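User: Hello, can you help with two protein structures?

Assistant: Certainly.
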Amino acid sequence: MSKIVFFSGAGLSADSGLGVFRGGNGLWDKYDVNQVCNINTWEKNYNLVHEFYSLRRVEYAKAKPNSMHKVIASLQQKYGKEKVIVITQNIDNLLEDAGCTDVMHVHGRINYIHCTKCNHEVYITDEFKGAVCQNCGGTHFKPSIVFFGEQAPKYADMYGAFASLSENDGVAVIGTEGSVVPIAHILGDKSYGVKASRLLCNLEKSIYINDKLFDEVIYDRAENASSKVQEFATSILEK
């Protein structure tokens, strides 16, 4: 039986009410990315950084999975996590809330912070008001989010997942403009890149993604396209 990789970005969760980071009314339009998400400047903006992610955490706690999250989860539950591989750039928990397991969060997760002294990680569900590390007594914490200029440890696993795909497998790219993770470049042309069948589902065209590299292209909200994505994935998984 074949397998499929779901690779998603902020557009997946936009229909659950979570703001995208770029584009119209994006979060970066309200905060300076170089202050709240830059590894070289975050410490001097410590309070602002935690304000930003505390607001996101409170916002995200109210969100519910939409139909696309549920489709991905139902496919994984039916065919297994070895056949339905879920990779996301999103820091929310909506895929897990829908029922997914072993989600690869390549940019970290909103509900974790870690001690900068010993890297001990702490689960947090609401506003950060300061903490003391139970492991070393440290009081300086960083959101467990990959900041710009910082290494992303999960990227190696992500590249490995794409490299493992054969011509019988599939890739569904959902809700990403492709500027941070250059997904079109990663997949490449089938003649020299990933051989798998490809589906692209975005709200609109992106200058960072050549849609001619995809077998099926849907320009619509993720929630509206969930049934078509399910059909595509099922056709791959039932081979």
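That covers the first. Now for the second protein you mentioned:
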Amino acid sequence: MAQLLFKDVNKVYPNGYHAVHDFNMEIKDGEFICLVGDSGCGKSTTLRMIAGLEDITSGEFYIDGKLANQMSSRDRGIAMVFQSYALYPHLTVYENLAFGLTLEGIDMDIIDEKVQATAKILGLTDYLERFPRALSGGQCQRVAVGRALIRKVNIFLMDEPLSNLDAKQRVTMRSEIKQIHRSVGATTIYVTHDQTEAMTMSDRIVVMKSGGYVQQIGTPYELYFYPKNLFVAGFIGEPPMNFIRGTVEGGKLKASGLELDLAPVVKDVKSIEGKKVVFAFRPEAIKLTKDKNSYQITSTVELTELLGDTTNVYATVGEGEEKVNVILKVNPHHTPEMGAQFNFVVPHKAAYIYDAETEEIVENDIKRH
């Protein structure tokens, strides 16, 4: 196993571009960590600094308590899986898996034992004599994972390994990678732009924003139910969270024709009096029946998408310049007609209030489960 520690780690390139800003985090033995964010947020750069493929400009990086800033990649006990499979096309699956061990001069009997054991874990036993060109994308990716797995290292680094697969293969490989992690127990850092991958696979997620700024670190549950700022709220969740911007007047949100009492969802309403805020809620959090602990909002239906188990309703709230687009998820049996007026309910516990200027959440005591 391996424990990683980052203290104020920065990466600045010679041209002055600051790719990663003050990265601070402790990764426990055996954790599965996902780095997510938009393009240019520094997630792959962070992974490459862990691997020793990029120098750390400032700050300290430790592996099992040892300062690793100047440690060579070879000495870090790391195996890396890239987006491209990078398999040797002229070698069989068996030879691809065995290649690294062969270079190390390991006895052939031991190599065979390791290859067979790794192939069994990955379901590749029946494909050992095939060449990469005879494999599917998912099978090629399993071979790429196997080449890392066979080395028995303590740290696995994965840089968008599933991005070249189709949707069905990605779902299958997500499950397989998670099962491999459970069986091997190595500390794993996984980079992806797909928040669904991060939510379904990780123990904790690091959400990064363009320019290399860490926005929030937490479990999938924490990021989904307690996003600290607008970026995380909009990034985590599919479809994304709805935002309605307005001003607080007399303790009420006034926006897009709405007038909502904020006392039930804000700890100190007076602290935001006169401020511009963002009222936010998730598409799947709405209800159709109002009670005393909820807000009722009237919308106009623009478009509906039947997905089978649910329907996405694209609607507008308000009129004219104040009109705001929202997405709502409803039971397909309750799908409204396009152009119809549609009343929906946002429970108080599902409502979020953010300061429009700082984009940080306004303090509250709401338990959201």
